[in-house]
TrEMBL record:
Major subcellular site: mitochondrion
Matches recorded under PROSITE patterns: PDZ
Annotated protein name in UniProt: Synaptojanin-2-binding protein
Subunit structure of this chain's protein: Binds (via the PDZ domain) to isoform 2A of SYNJ2 (via the unique motif in the C-terminus). Interacts (via C-terminus) with RALBP1. Interacts (via PDZ domain) with ACVR2A (via C-terminus) and ACVR2B (via C-terminus). Forms a ternary complex with ACVR2A and RALBP1. Interacts with MAPK12. Interacts with DLL1; enhances DLL1 protein stability, and promotes notch signaling in endothelial cells.
Coiled coil: none
Annotated CDD domains: PDZ_SYNJ2BP-like
UniProt source species: Cirrhinus molitorella (mud carp)
GO cellular component, one term: cell junction
Gene Ontology MF terms: protein kinase binding
Gene Ontology terms describing biological process: cell-cell adhesion; establishment or maintenance of epithelial cell apical/basal polarity; receptor clustering; receptor localization to synapse
Record keywords: Membrane, Mitochondrion, Mitochondrion outer membrane, Transmembrane, Transmembrane helix
The keyword Transmembrane is annotated on this UniProt entry: yes
Length: 155
């Protein structure tokens, strides 16, 4: 066995009571707005502070919502999924697939309950680094164009 059973995302059943501000989270995804390439699932994008989901504490940003009140969310448009949430009633039963926790990646020690994405941080630093390299290369290219070796003075 290669240990992949330990890395399989776990599923969980959660019931949330709709509060004055709704369920307290935003969703992304759907067949028309894929959040993850080749996956039309519905995902938790943001947990709102002091909302029903945040107070419950089990639903996390990045979790995939598999079903709401027994209705599977497979092959739905984003709008259809939003409508299911809006019409779900006061007590909303969710079946979720928790986001996988990286086994060898960086860990977060944030005590404030905010999620942190190692991939998002890595991507941000990569983009900034590539931008700096591109700018330096462009400046060097322009200097060579303006002052080729062996030339003296303006043209």
């Amino acid at each position: 066995m290669n240990g992949s059973a330990h890395n399989a995302p776990s599923e969980e059943e959660i019931t949330l009571k709709r509060g004055p501000a709704g369920l307290g989270f935003n969703i992304v995804g759907g067949v028309d707005q894929q959040y993850i390439m080749n996956d039309s699932g519905i995902y938790v994008a943001k947990i709102k502070d002091d909302g029903a989901a945040a107070l419950d504490g089990r639903l996390q940003e990045g979790d995939k919502i598999l079903a709401i009140n027994g209705q599977k969310l497979d092959n739905l448009s984003h709008g259809a999924a939003v409508e299911l949430f809006r019409s779900a009633g006061e007590d909303v039963h969710l079946r979720i697939q928790q986001r996988p926790i990286p086994q060898n990646g960086p860990t977060s020690s944030r005590a404030d309950g905010e999620s942190s994405s190692a991939f998002g941080t890595w991507t941000m630093y990569t983009i900034v680094g590539l931008a700096v390299i591109a700018a330096a290369g462009f400046i060097a290219y322009k200097r060579i164009q303006l002052h080729p070796r062996g030339s003296r003075g303006p043209f």
